[in-house]
Automatic annotation (TrEMBL):
<feature type="transmembrane region" description="Helical">
    <location>
        <begin position="228"/>
        <end position="255"/>
    </location>
</feature>
<feature type="transmembrane region" description="Helical">
    <location>
        <begin position="275"/>
        <end position="301"/>
    </location>
</feature>
<keyword id="KW-0813">Transport</keyword>
<keyword id="KW-1003">Cell membrane</keyword>
<dbReference type="Pfam" id="PF00528">
    <property type="entry name" value="BPD_transp_1"/>
</dbReference>
<feature type="domain" description="ABC transmembrane type-1">
    <location>
        <begin position="123"/>
        <end position="305"/>
    </location>
</feature>
<feature type="transmembrane region" description="Helical">
    <location>
        <begin position="7"/>
        <end position="31"/>
    </location>
</feature>
<protein>
    <submittedName>
        <fullName>Peptide/nickel transport system permease protein</fullName>
    </submittedName>
</protein>
<keyword id="KW-0472">Membrane</keyword>
<keyword id="KW-0812">Transmembrane</keyword>
<dbReference type="InterPro" id="IPR035906">
    <property type="entry name" value="MetI-like_sf"/>
</dbReference>
<feature type="transmembrane region" description="Helical">
    <location>
        <begin position="144"/>
        <end position="165"/>
    </location>
</feature>
<feature type="transmembrane region" description="Helical">
    <location>
        <begin position="171"/>
        <end position="189"/>
    </location>
</feature>
<dbReference type="InterPro" id="IPR000515">
    <property type="entry name" value="MetI-like"/>
</dbReference>
<feature type="transmembrane region" description="Helical">
    <location>
        <begin position="111"/>
        <end position="132"/>
    </location>
</feature>
<dbReference type="GO" id="GO:0005886">
    <property type="term" value="C:plasma membrane"/>
</dbReference>
<keyword id="KW-1133">Transmembrane helix</keyword>
Length: 306
């Protein structure tokens, strides 16, 4: 398969996957009982509201969230609107969903991107050196640190860092500490995978041939890197998505960052369907988009994988 054909195939897969995820999310959200509405009506009943007043409250609440239309009509309208980036207004925040989601995405990207890049560079460098120096003190310490990082949750590391720094300044709270927590969450997997892949490469005949020719360790490392970068890239995309979905919610709630994780949690608590689906689009874009980018990069770096 040519690179162009692979690109078109992956793009088609991405379109189908995006709409499938959005459809499942829409169904889960709209078919889940609204606890906020129940709580509001229960409070009104306890306060002595009449049945007519409670019904009016219910109709106002449902209309404000666009839930007074048949299910199929709401779904079709949403598919068209989300395709045209007309995501509507957030019922809980009173602002356009695209504006709210865009601002939250920037807040998350401020710490997620530096943390992921740092983990990838450090993980690959440490993994290759650890494989080259198998059995050395550096290798043993690196593997020990990897096992420790695997067992430590990122939000706990962030909490400890904030306590040690006495809260820190705005940059520390919104970029350095959460970025470090993301890097720690990704680093262990990067080191482990890079080392395991590189061990086989350092035992290969071509490495022994290069050493016999007098090539330096740095030159050999560069050639080993070219052969291990494809699986490492694939793992990076998968782990980055898991960190965004699982860790971002806890990290941002703990630190007080109004990013995508915090926004998803707040939208779910308020049963704000447009906002939930808008936040879901960001997660889908990161997950599917990252997978496509890594797949295409792998095909470009290694034509044998096409």
């Amino acid at each position: 398969m040519s690179f162009r054909s692979r690109l078109l195939a992956r793009f088609g897969f991405a379109v189908v996957a995006v709409y499938l995820v959005i459809t499942l999310t829409f169904l889960v959200v709209v078919l889940t009982p609204d606890t906020n509405l129940r709580g509001m009506l229960g409070t009104a009943l306890w306060s002595g509201a009449s049945p007519a007043e409670m019904e009016q409250m219910r109709e106002t609440y449902i209309a404000a969230r666009g839930r007074d239309q048949p299910l199929y009509r709401r779904y079709l309208d949403w598919v068209v609107n989300i395709t045209l980036f007309r995501w509507g207004l957030s019922a809980s925040m009173g602002e356009p969903v695209t504006q709210v989601v865009g601002a939250a995405t920037l807040e998350t990207a401020k710490y997620l991107v530096p943390g992921a890049v740092t983990a990838w560079i450090a993980g690959v460098a440490v993994g290759i050196r650890s494989a080259r120096e198998r059995g050395s003190r550096f290798d043993r310490l690196g593997r020990l640190a990897t096992y420790v990082l695997f067992g430590l949750p990122g939000f706990w590391l962030a909490a400890v860092a904030l306590v040690a720094l006495d809260g820190g300044g705005p940059l520390t709270r919104t970029v350095i500490v959460p970025g470090g927590a993301v890097a720690a969450a990704l680093l262990a997997g990067q080191v482990s995978l890079t080392r395991s892949r590189s061990v086989d490469e350092f035992d290969a005949d071509y490495v022994r041939y290069l050493r016999a020719k007098g090539l330096t360790d740095r030159g050999i490392d560069r050639r080993v890197f070219r052969n291990v970068v494809v699986p490492v890239l694939s793992m990076t995309a998968a782990e980055l998505f898991s960190v965004l979905v699982l860790s971002a919610v806890v990290l941002e709630s703990l630190i007080g960052i109004e990013g995508v994780g915090w926004l998803t949690y707040e939208a779910t608590q308020e049963n704000d369907i447009p906002l939930i689906l808008g936040a879901t689009m960001v997660l889908v874009a990161v997950g599917i988009g990252g997978s496509i980018v890594c797949d295409l990069a792998s095909a470009w770096l290694d034509p044998r994988s096409r």
